[in-house]
Amino acid sequence: MDKKIIVITGASGTGKTTISKYLQDTYHIPSVITHTTRLPRTGEKNGIDYYFETKDSFSNNHYLEKVEYSGNWYGSSEESLNRTWEQYDAASIVVDTKGAVSYKEKYGKNAVVIFLEVDLETVTQRLENRGDDKARLQTRINSNEFQRDLKIPEELRGKSYVIVNNNIKITKETVAKILVNEKIK
Ligand SMILES: Nc1ncnc2c1ncn2[C@@H]1O[C@H](COP(=O)(O)OP(=O)(O)OP(=O)(O)O)[C@@H](O)[C@H]1O
Ligand SMILES: Nc1nc2c(ncn2[C@@H]2O[C@H](COP(=O)(O)O)[C@@H](O)[C@H]2O)c(=O)[nH]1
User: Fold this and answer.
1) What would the DSSP string read from start to end of 168-181?
2) What is the interface pTM, i.e. ipTM, of the complex?
3) Is the CB of 74 under 6 A from ligand 2?
4) What span, in angstroms and rounded, lies between the C-alpha atoms of 52 and 55?
5) What is the enclosing helix (H) or strand (E) of 163?
6) Closest protein CA for atom 8 of ligand 2
7) What separation in Å is there between the alpha carbon of 95 and the centre of ligand 2?
8) Within this chain, do residues 76 and 107 fall inside the same structural domain, yes or no?
9) Residue of 2, 161, 26, 9 lying closest to 90 (CA atoms)
10) 56 lies in the same domain as 136
11) Is the CB of residue 162 below 6 angstroms from any atom belonging to ligand 2?
12) SS3 of 100, please?
């Protein structure tokens, strides 16, 4: 069987991590942990949510792709994905749309891209409810990256599953159908 990487993308707060946890908890599809220079949020743990890096340690790693998002660096490594594929046929990864384009270009049909869409007002409310620091949240919402990721990029149109994540139950049901369609489960 072909190995698959389920690339979950969309703007911050659209529910990417929620879906990656659903894949882990319900289908035992592991998430590839990425690296960031961002400080941990309350409750986030090194090696579980991210590998939290300093600017120096971040620059020492080798990445398949890396991006700057709202003032912090994020990157994912081919080694981590290959290690996961040694044990599992499918894994998921949570990245911004620029990262998703990189995965689609590199892995073609083996990269199953799911783009999550939520309107700006709703996503802002969800990020406030999540407890994101107010000042940092405003900076993030105003960032070019966040604004860009509210809509699917041209490069992913027609090559991705688009889910409007207004209702988590319906979103999970749609993801379950995608797994069947892609012969992952
Ligand atoms: N359909 C939904 N309805 C209501 N709340 C939701 C829904 N989907 C996700 N959420 C909530 O919205 C918040 C943001 O979700 P999540 O952290 O999964 O987003 P994200 O895209 O991973 O964000 P980031 O990129 O900033 O890490 C969480 O508190 C989550 O529980
Ligand atoms: N291209 C990549 N994007 C990544 C990676 N790891 C996370 N992300 C995305 O960054 C933003 C901000 O994340 P947050 O945890 O600070 O809210 C979000 O869209 C993530 O999906 C990565 O390795 N590469």
Assistant:
1) HHHHHHHHHHHHHH
2) 0.99
3) yes
4) 10
5) strand 160-164
6) 95
7) 5
8) no
9) 2
10) no
11) no
12) helix
Residues of the domain holding 80: 33-87
Per residue of the chain (185 residues), what is the pLDDT tens digit?
Answer: 589 999 999 999 999 999 999 999 999 999 999 999 999 999 999 999 999 999 999 999 999 999 999 999 999 999 999 999 999 999 999 999 999 999 999 999 999 999 999 999 999 999 999 999 999 999 999 999 999 999 999 999 999 999 999 999 999 999 999 999 999 99
Nearest to 19 by CA among 156, 170, 120, 136: 170
- Which residue bears the tokens 């890096």? 53
35's tokens: 């690296």
Structurally, the chain folds into a number of domains equal to 2
Tokens of 91: 């894994």
* CB of 98 sitting under 6 A from ligand 2: yes
Cα–Cα distance for residue pair 93/100, rounded to 1 Å: 9
